Amino acid sequence: MLNLKFFHSVLLLSSIGLYQSCCPEGWVKGRYSCYYPSHDSATWLAASIKCQSMASNLTVINNQDENNFVAGMIKEYIHAYKHNFWLDGTDVNQEGHFIWHSAKHPISYKNWNVNEPSGGSEDCIEMLVKEFVDPRQIGKWNDKICSYLNHYICEKSIDDEGPVLSQGSVIG
What is the CATH number for 153? Predict the structure, then answer.
């Protein structure tokens, strides 16, 4: 029920131009990008493919302002979600060396939760929303097993409504 309220709110705000300007219907306008917080859950790979099918990529967080915006967008409707959210980051190719998958470049801005990344078979980055009750941890990052089911956030550029970064091949 709350999930429907979220999307109805986005649609209403979109129709009066508050949330969306140059973004597709159902997307939330940020400073430079449009964001799509999913209502469904998927593995990291399936989420990446779903984003690509919408001419976008999983979200790349470039700085603290963007991280705060994305976390705030999720917090606004936190009760509608059951899981955390996949971001574009992974260290599947080299343990401990996280990159933004779609751009194939190292992650410069980081917002890891305490004692993270923890390594091992946890190769994909999630933004914490639901696993921790402490509100101070919302928006922090955690490395997670990529086959776990999470919500996901897609991102595309406002300018061309295409992916913010060049699409890379999907890891498998």
Answer: 3.10.100.10
